[in-house]
Design a protein that fits this description.
The complex is a heterodimer of chains A (420) and B (378).
Chain A (H helix, E strand, L loop, with lengths): L1 H11 L1 H35 L7 E5 L7 E2 L2 E2 L9 E2 L15 E13 L7 E7 L3 E5 L2 E5 L1 H4 L4 E4 L9 E4 H7 L6 E4 L2 E10 L8 E4 H8 L4 E2 L1 E6 L6 H4 L7 H8 L4 H11 L3 E5 L1 H42 L2 H9 L4 H39 L9 H26 L2 H6 L3
Parallel strand pairs in A: 6-13, 10-12
Antiparallel strand pairs in A: 1-15, 1-16, 2-3, 4-14, 5-6, 5-15, 7-8, 9-12, 10-13, 11-12
Helix pairs in contact in A: 1-11, 2-9, 2-11, 2-12, 9-12, 11-12
Chain B lengths: L2 H9 L5 H12 L1 H36 L6 E5 L9 H9 L4 E12 L4 E7 L1 H7 L4 E2 L8 E5 H7 L6 E5 L2 E12 L7 E5 H8 L5 E5 L4 H14 L3 E5 L1 H43 L1 H9 L4 H39 L10 H23 L4 H5 L3
Helix pairs in contact in B: 3-9, 3-11, 3-12, 4-8, 9-12, 11-12
Classes of the chains: A alpha+beta (420), B alpha+beta (378).
Chain lengths: 420, 378
């Protein structure tokens, strides 16, 4: 009998059930989408923050002092120690290899060009977008990943060619444009493009690493290595000195993607190196990230509140309209409990149907937001499904409870006479 | 009707039937009217809070982004010094919205002849500009130097006082603190500008500027500075500007999507509550019609009621929403979100529009029904 009542109620009152169902579906959909976006926003923004460039720098351990003002070197660049280029792919064998977005080696050398306007020039050797191999895995890395604000007019040179880029100020001084030739250290090279960075490189020649090594006469030499890594904001553990930790704590520190522990692992991966965080980038990332995450969390709370309210309002209206029905049931001898049970059963059914549909819709919505704003997928944790369903049921029940209480208390005589 | 009541009626100032009906409808069905008003207030509050946040979050985040330090740099041409009035010109151009910090650089020699870069600057300002600098102790006395960690290994490994010379002019410095940044600052020694100038006689060649503003504001500031300082190159620091623009754009887009979803949900909530409320009063509607009220009057009556509800809800909701936005600002950014009164007309018009739609929709449906059917309870 109870099942029949519920079934008939859904069959005969399609419009009302549809209205309440739509409200629940929309509410759950918005809640799902917001929760999915809020849980994933940290990851997405931390990827966007990588547009600030590398947050770690690796230098040789016994490095000499830089004597540099505004990008101009006041010291013969040939002295000092070097990293070995052959060690670089080992970065992809680190514990946190998947958090390494990219890296770019740098090797500045002094050269002379065949031009009266520019006798002593700096040529910077680097990777543009180089294909490397570690084990069986291939990956590409270079300044196009680590220095996304570098803009090239013309084309990026191929890493295996001997083409070069000219900084825009230097190009203006030399009167060269993309496609011209320039003689560096006695050899002619094609200018693939004009580079604009807003920094010291605007006055330099930027070339594939192999060319710089060949001019320097030191194959495999790398002066500095910039690494761009996804990191976790610093907390109390991250600020502790790893040397004073007990083994258990050290393992926890080592297995967290703090900028300090990634620096530690870089030092392990590359022999005779010293890795350091670039504090300007690394330190500020955490604050910006936590602000944006906090903002989205509060906004998600507002969304949950608004959708809970919408669901409650729809349920209250749906039940309020059925007082005559309640009156009839009670006149036929139904107790308060069985009337309430009927309404709650209907609410449960609506919440489950609306919850499932809303979850699916919300997941689609989150995906759409991810694709259109961040150009990447927003992953939805499967654990979210039961949580969302539970929230939908609780909110629907809470929203109905007041209305059900009032409907049950209503005198059947008044309800049947239509004096509501 | 007793004569007493008739007298009372006559003595009262004449109020129109229309207003009386509006008032009585609100008073007699307090419960339902209150719940409709509540829905309206909450929706308006949520919408106000979201719009306020959306407008203000840019300014709030820009402030956070200024922790990344300078976004404009002024460099004198060809390694010369900037004109003496450059700093005051820059400071008047930014007009208190940010910092401008001068830097002077030379290459000095250590006692064993090694070259090292020494910089003179306003250390108090640098502390504010470059908040990421990790410093063991900031110098505060004359002859105190802030030594980069890699420079320290060369000039004073045990933190002892050390000597430098520049063009045969020697100076004795005390290593007051160690500086760590992970960038070129690690290889430098920083002095206060007074010590630096009295030792070397070299004037600042670079001014680093951190100013918060939209990219148009920063572009116009750069133009203004280039005109007033023809002997220098003024350029934006692209690494900082582009990163900021990107992250800010994405955050705002996400917030806009969230705001749209939340406002739509709130509007839906109002719609369903108000439709229920009006539908519930189909008997009033039928009685009015049976008594000979024209359809225009009835629609006008319900519309006026809804508009009044929307207006009151919007005003109260705006007040609450501003409070919520201010609270979010305080919790998350440690600075309250400033109320934006240009949001008010949007909220006001939007609330009334939603209320009108939800009042007119059921009326439109009821119009086709005979009043007798409703009154019979069918």
């Amino acid at each position: 009998m109870f099942g029949r009542l519920v079934y008939e109620s859904f069959r005969r009152q399609k419009r009302r059930k549809l209205l309440a169902g739509v409200a629940i579906t929309l509410g759950v959909g918005v809640a799902t989408a917001m929760i999915a976006v809020a849980t994933d926003i940290g990851d997405k923004i931390s990827r966007e923050l990588r547009t600030y460039g590398a947050n770690l720098i690796v230098t040789p351990q016994e490095d000499t002092l830089d004597v540099q003002i505004g990008g101009v070197d006041f010291k013969p660049p040939s002295d000092g120690a070097y990293l070995n280029e052959a060690d670089l792919p080992k970065i992809k064998g680190m514990f946190w290899r998947n958090n390494i977005v990219g890296f770019a080696p740098m090797l500045p050398v002094s050269v002379s060009a065949n031009d009266a306007n520019a006798k002593d020039l700096t040529l910077l050797g680097t990777y543009f977008s180089k294909r490397l191999q570690f084990g069986k895995e291939y990956f590409t890395t270079g300044v196009r990943v680590t220095h996304p604000w570098w803009k090239v007019q013309g084309a990026w040179p191929d890493d295996n060619s001997s083409d070069v880029l000219l900084g825009e100020s230097l190009a203006a001084k030399l009167g060269r444009k993309a496609g011209d030739e320039i003689t560096i250290a006695g050899q002619a090279h094609r200018v693939a493009g004009i580079l604009s960075t807003g920094g010291a490189e605007d006055n330099q020649i930027v070339a594939p690493l192999a060319l710089a090594q060949q001019i320097l006469g030191k194959p495999g030499a790398v002066r500095r290595l910039y690494v761009s890594a996804l990191t976790k904001p610093e907390d109390a553990l991250a600020r502790r000195n790893p040397k004073s930790m007990n083994p258990e704590m050290f393992d926890r520190w080592y297995c967290s993607p703090y900028v300090a522990s990634i620096a530690y692992q870089l030092q392990e991966a590359i022999p005779h190196s010293h890795a350091e965080q670039i504090r300007q980038i690394a330190q500020n990332e955490g604050t910006v990230l936590s602000r944006i995450k906090g903002l989205m969390l509060l906004v998600t709370l507002a969304a949950l509140f608004a959708s809970a309210l919408a669901v409650s309002a729809a349920m209250a209206t749906a039940i309020f309209e059925r007082r005559t029905e309640v009156g009839l049931m009670k006149a036929l001898g139904a107790g308060n409990i069985s009337v309430a049970a009927l309404f709650f059963a209907e609410a449960l059914l609506l919440a489950l149907i609306g919850g499932v549909l809303g979850f699916a819709g919300g997941a689609l919505l989150a995906r759409q937001i991810g694709r259109s704003i961040f150009d990447s997928q927003i992953t939805i944790e499967p654990v979210l499904f039961p949580v969302i369903l539970a929230i939908a049921v609780i909110v629907t029940f809470a929203g109905s409870a007041m209305a059900i209480r009032r409907a049950v208390k209503f005198d059947p005589v008044y309800a049947l006479r239509g004096e509501a | 009707m007793s004569s007493d009541l008739i007298n009372r009626r006559a003595a009262k100032p004449h109020t129109s039937m229309f207003l009386r009906m509006l008032m009585r409808a609100a008073v007699l069905r307090r419960g339902r009217a209150a719940s409709a008003l509540l829905a309206m207030v909450v929706a308006a509050a949520v919408a106000t809070a979201m719009l306020n946040l959306y407008v203000d979050v840019q300014a709030k985040l820009r402030k956070e982004f200024r922790n990344y330090g300078a976004n404009i740099v002024v460099v004198a041409n060809d390694g010369q010094a900037l004109p003496a009035d450059a700093l005051s010109k820059v400071q008047s151009a930014i007009a208190g919205h940010g910092f401008a910090v001068p830097f002077a650089y030379i290459v000095a020699r250590t006692s064993d002849g090694q070259p090292v870069v020494v910089a003179g600057t306003d250390l108090d300002q640098v502390r504010k500009l470059d908040s990421w600098w990790s410093v063991t102790a900031w110098p505060n006395a004359s002859q105190d130097a802030l030594v980069g960690t890699r420079a320290a290994a060369v000039v004073s490994p045990q933190g002892k006082p050390f000597d430098l010379s520049f063009q045969q002019r020697p100076i004795h410095l005390i290593s007051a603190g160690i500086l760590r940044t992970g960038a070129s600052e690690d290889s430098r020694i920083y002095l206060s500008l007074q010590d630096f100038e009295s030792w070397t006689g070299v004037q600042p060649s670079t001014i680093e500027i951190a100013t918060a503003g939209s990219s148009e504001e920063i572009d116009s500031l750069i133009q203004k500075l280039s005109q007033s300082l023809p002997a220098a190159e003024v350029r934006p620091i692209r690494q900082i500007m582009e990163g900021e623009a990107r992250v800010l754009g994405k955050t705002r887009a996400t917030l806009a999507a969230a705001a749209a979803l939340i406002i739509a949900t709130a509007a839906l909530c109002v719609l369903s509550t108000l439709i229920g409320w009006v539908f519930d009063r189909r008997r009033d509607f039928a009685i009015m019609k049976a008594l000979g009220a024209s359809e225009g009057l009835i629609s006008g009556f319900f519309a006026a009621e809804a508009a009044a509800l929307g207006a009151v809800g919007a005003l109260v909701g705006f007040g609450i929403g501003v409070g919520v936005a201010a609270w979010i600002g305080r919790v998350n950014f440690h600075a309250p979100v400033v109320p934006r009164f240009n949001v008010l007309p949007v909220i006001f018009v939007g609330s009334i529009a939603v209320a009108l739609i939800s009042a007119v929709l059921p009326i439109f449906l009821l119009r086709r029904v005979q009043p007798a059917m409703i009154l019979r309870g069918e």
